[in-house]
Fold each of these.
Amino acid sequence: MKKATKSKRVLIFDEEGLKLLAKHLKKVRMAKGYSQEELAYESGMTLSQIARIETVKINPTVSTIFKLARTLQVPVSDLFDFKLPKEN
């Protein structure tokens, strides 16, 4: 019997997609009249977390996206209203 080989887990960090999300989140945030500090306060998140999302330093969780959408009072789909290019 062959021994099963372990596959190495790979961290997914789609930098191009996250840049588009960050740019669009900033656009929505500003259209709603929030500063990063105000969004952080209203959402119960830290200012550094908002800044790290908008500067593509972190990959936000789905729960974080839900929290931002609720705070900004927009459908989740609004935060993803951008065209994602095909992978190379």
Amino acid sequence: MKYIKADLILPTALIEELQRYIQGGENKKGWGELSGYKHEIDERNRKIQMEYTKGKSIEDLAEQYFLSVHSIRKIIYK
């Protein structure tokens, strides 16, 4: 059987609807949204930023949260 491009034989609206269906529809959740882990990470990052603005050093934050200094910098300067 020979390959035929869908846009040559199907209406555009149908192709777009099929793509939405295949990709999980309009209600597709992002990483960590179903488990709540994304919210936990966001909350942790807010705490890190707050503690940094109150004067805690990057090295102390890295040790407290078991993250690298580089990771703490990324969170602070985000």
